[in-house]
Amino acid sequence: MKRIYQLNTCDNCRKLLKAFSDVSEYDIIDIKSAGISPEELDEMKERAGSYEALFSKRAMKYKSLGLKDKQLTEQEMRQFILDEYTFLKRPVRIDGPQIYIGKLND
């Protein structure tokens, strides 16, 4: 399976996708319109090792909800990502068994 989870309105995602040599063999998934299923997120976690690795602390809601002052558990991070797409650190590229978070190339 080859997928890239990204956000069409994200400047970083657009910049990285443009710099990536060949995206034609990937399913490009816009997380705002398609969302992220619990199964997809759990699969990402298995490859990444934790939900924290997938959790964006740069999301605007991170500060507005006062999350920076809390110690979030793995399950809380999982639920935030499922509830609000902006909490997924992006882009996420799955290339076979490999996962790349926040970048497309090594």
Provide the CATH architecture.
3-Layer(aba) Sandwich
Determine the structural class based on helices, strands and strand pairing: alpha+beta
Helicity, as a percent range: 25-40%
Mean pLDDT score: 91
In N-to-C order, the SSE pattern is EHEHHHHEE
**How many distinct helices?**
5
Shape: globular
What proportion of the residues form beta strands (DSSP E)? 15-25%
Characterization of the model:
With 106 residues, this protein is of the alpha+beta class. The chain has one domain: Glutaredoxin (3-Layer(aba) Sandwich). Helices cover 37% and strands 16% of the residues. It has helices at 11-19, 31-34, 38-48, 60-64, 74-83; strands at residues 2-6, 27-30, 92-95, 98-101. Strand 1 (2-6), helix 1 (11-19) and strand 2 (27-30) form a beta-alpha-beta unit. The protein is globular and about 40 Å long.
Question: Key features?
Answer:
106 residues, 5 helices, alpha+beta, four-stranded mixed beta sheet, Glutaredoxin
What's the short story on this structure?
The chain is of the alpha+beta class. It has a single domain (2-101), classed as Glutaredoxin.
Topology, element by element:
Layout: E1 2-6, H1 11-19, E2 27-30, H2 31-34, H3 38-48, H4 60-64, H5 74-83, E3 92-95, E4 98-101
Parallel strand pairs: 1-2
Antiparallel strand pairs: 1-3, 3-4
